[in-house]
């Protein structure tokens, strides 16, 4: 498909988040149009709406939570239907924010402005223990959806710090744009979400960012482009054209010189409706941690670098391991194969290979072993991956999911209010 081909309309849903940037920029900078695509963007405010409207055929593709296509393909979500991930939308970009009251308790317990996940978790554990000793209600933390990276990253961090997310705190679901208001209103005590909704609480003076998911798991995967499997099968050329447009958009978004224009474009009420100054923190990685001043957080976010848009099967299998860990899914040969089939690096390679893009030869890797920027084997050019360690030192081998899940002392079903 080229610019001279007949125009194909693709209808896409998105949530107002910085990590929707690639999809949004593909439209408003003309990359999609140059590929012969009329990319129609529809704003939604909850991930449940995105999930349902993809399943019902209202959207051909969508900005989705990385575990959501997996959950849909496993039949764990309403309406059913397989959903595939042919492209990711970046690495990192999330954080954990707590209320002023919780931060005060954490600071008394020794929390500083460094954002270290272990130190912050130890301080939070002291606050949780003190409240329990005094007979006070449990703290409530919000995530954006039961099948979200935020749910799994928050649980992982809490559990690794000795806080059982099933019993020591309450967990609930709040749409991303409502997080800061829920915190300000005292409805929740903390949350894990993507930017700019952590910085929004800092700017409003109602919360403190205590750590980032890029510190919990370096180079951690984030949102994806989700597509109904039947639509992708019927429209291979249109999907490939969209991936090419989004690849060019990812390069544009990752260029530091474009940051001012990017935040101006995204600040429109049609997209994020947030002040550019608030979005700049999440875009540049200069995050206000604890009670300190903005400081650079290493490797906070990537739109394109370090194979940020490549749909690693091992990333999908890590999310599946957490579904198994927390009792959302069963590990069987059939479910494992379904998860593997929901990640489609083959479609990514087919679309971007002719462009000469450096593509990794492997589709999966052991997660948590890289301590520095490392070259990987490619079919074209040079490609470097970033450090990918978990803060607790664990390593994930995608061929040993059962052993990995069983290695956690804290695991099993627990409540999550939706």
Please supply descriptive tags for the structure shown above.
18 helices; 418 residues; D-Maltodextrin-Binding Protein, domain 2; Nitrate transporter
Describe the protein.
- With 418 residues, this protein is of the alpha/beta class.
- The strands form five sheets. The chain has a five-stranded mixed sheet with strand order 2-1-3-11-4, sandwiched between helices.
- A hairpin with an 8-residue loop joins strand 15 and strand 16.
- Helix 1 packs across helix 12, helix 13 crosses helix 14 and helix 15 packs across helix 16.
- The protein starts with 7 loop residues before the first strand and ends in a 12-residue tail after the last helix.
- The mean pLDDT is 95.
The major pleated sheet works out as: 5 strands, mixed
Oligomer: single chain
Secondary-structure class: alpha/beta
Q: What's the CATH superfamily, by name?
A: Periplasmic binding protein-like II
What is the residue-mean pLDDT, rounded to a whole number? 95
Number of helices: 18
CATH class: Alpha Beta
Helix content: 25-40%
Q: List low-pLDDT spans.
A: none
State the total count of DSSP E strands. 16
Radius of gyration: 20 Å
Q: What characteristic shape results from the CA principal axes?
A: globular
Using the 3D structure, state the CATH architecture: 3-Layer(aba) Sandwich
Return the domain count.
1
Range of strand content: 15-25%
Tell me the span between the first and last alpha carbons: 42 Å
Give, in spatial order, the strands making up the sheet with the most strands: 2-1-3-11-4
Task: Provide the CATH topology.
Answer: D-Maltodextrin-Binding Protein, domain 2
């Amino acid at each position: 498909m080229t610019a001279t081909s007949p125009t194909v309309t693709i209808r896409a849903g998105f949530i107002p988040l910085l990590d929707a940037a690639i999809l949004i920029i593909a439209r408003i900078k003309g990359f999609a149009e140059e590929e012969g695509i009329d990319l129609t963007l529809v704003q939604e405010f909850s991930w449940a709406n995105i999930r349902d409207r993809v399943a019902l055929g209202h959207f051909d593709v969508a900005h989705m939570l990385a575990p959501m296509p997996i959950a849909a393909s496993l039949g764990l979500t309403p309406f059913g239907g397989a959903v595939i991930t042919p492209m990711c939308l970046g690495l990192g970009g999330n954080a954990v924010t707590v209320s002023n009251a919780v931060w005060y308790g954490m600071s008394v317990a020794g929390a500083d402005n460094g954002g270290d996940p272990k130190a912050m978790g130890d301080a939070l554990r002291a606050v949780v223990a003190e409240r329990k000793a005094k007979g006070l209600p449990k703290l409530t933390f919000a995530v954006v959806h039961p099948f979200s990276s935020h749910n799994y990253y928050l649980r992982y961090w809490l559990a690794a710090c000795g806080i059982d997310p099933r019993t020591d705190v309450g967990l609930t679901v709040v749409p991303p744009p409502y997080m800061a208001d829920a915190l300000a209103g005292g409805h929740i005590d903390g949350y894990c979400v993507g930017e700019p909704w952590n910085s929004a609480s800092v700017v409003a003076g109602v919360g403190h960012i205590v750590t980032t998911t890029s510190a919990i798991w370096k180079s951690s995967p984030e949102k994806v482009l989700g597509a109904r499997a039947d639509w992708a099968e019927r429209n291979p050329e249109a999907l490939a054209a969209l991936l090419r447009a989004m690849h060019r958009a990812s390069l544009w978004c990752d260029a530091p010189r474009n940051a001012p224009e990017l935040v101006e474009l995204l600040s429109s009420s049609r997209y994020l409706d947030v002040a550019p100054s608030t979005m700049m923190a999440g875009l540049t990685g200069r995050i206000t941690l604890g009670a300190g001043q903005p400081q650079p957080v290493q490797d906070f976010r990537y739109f394109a670098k370090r194979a940020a848009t490549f749909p690693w099967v091992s990333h999908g299998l890590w999310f599946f391991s957490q579904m198994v860990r927390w009792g959302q899914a069963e590990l069987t040969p059939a479910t494992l194969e379904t998860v593997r089939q929901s990640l489609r690096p083959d479609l990514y390679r087919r679309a971007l290979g002719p462009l000469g893009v450096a593509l990794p030869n492997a589709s999966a890797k052991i997660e948590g072993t890289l301590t520095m920027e490392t070259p990987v084997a490619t079919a074209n050019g040079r490609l470097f991956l970033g450090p990918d360690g978990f803060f607790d030192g664990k390593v994930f081998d995608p061929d040993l999911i059962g052993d990995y899940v069983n290695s956690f002392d804290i695991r099993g079903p627990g409540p999550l209010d939706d």
